[in-house]
């Protein structure tokens, strides 16, 4: 999700109009006022405003027009070349040169930013690949929405795996930001993909993730070495028995949207600590099992969805918003996620404070159903 406010494009458009507008206003002002008045500040501002928004050629052209306009108007006002005319012209040359320097600095920064964005996007695709729309006979859709413009990946994660034990999923949120969080995301997803294939139970998968994060914590420095943790919910959808099993480790509760619009909040029977906090208490994970009938959609999400706030500080509540609504057909998961993203954008006024990972899985209706 972009952090740019809805008014920013209009402000950029206004800034791009200002340089030629300042030149025109400067000429008119100088022509209509007595000789002792000068529009030099307007002519000086034009190339400086053009520098960050226009190309080098346009910036140079704006600076040249400003210099010529100042020289011509000052000569006309003073009936010749004197010290004031030369001073004004040299000042405009200096301002023009400064505008060119600013333009070059901004353009180089844009190139580096574009490169960083490309690298971040490649990292996202490698760590969080878009799942296939059909996995293990289930309809699947996933979405990652970054809170900051240009930030493609952070501490939120999701993964879907078709295994001998059924389709297994994980959605999680790593504490912290930056490269440390990204490294933890890679650790969790890597451990999940291996454990999902090898472990016979969902509880064992959760324990494998716990051990993987514990090993990662010994390699992390500073506060993360002591307070690093990951909230996560793991799901297992066995083939053919119409159920879903969940292990929730301190994560927002998944939602089950039935085909008739009824909504069920899948709260854990026993709350558990997030992954990576095993030192504070140890008890066996216990999976909760619930019906997952044909036509139903399971929604897993991070707190970037449930903690999205509007201007008054009111949270977006997906359980209230989705109750009674029906999403049907093979594209129901994708339609559900698109609806959530659009509603969060509208609720927050175009921006959010946290990244948001969404994963929706639908059990299709078969002829036997």
TrEMBL record:
* SUPFAM superfamilies named among the record's database cross-references: PP2C-like (SSF81606)
Please give the start and end residues of each transmembrane region.
13-32, 53-73, 85-106
Report domain PPM-type phosphatase positions.
138-363
Q: Keyword annotations for this protein?
A: Hydrolase, Membrane, Transmembrane, Transmembrane helix
Q: Name one GO molecular function term.
A: phosphatase activity
Q: Which Gene3D superfamilies match?
A: PPM-type phosphatase domain
What name appears for this protein in its UniProt entry?
Answer: Serine phosphatase RsbU (Regulator of sigma subunit)
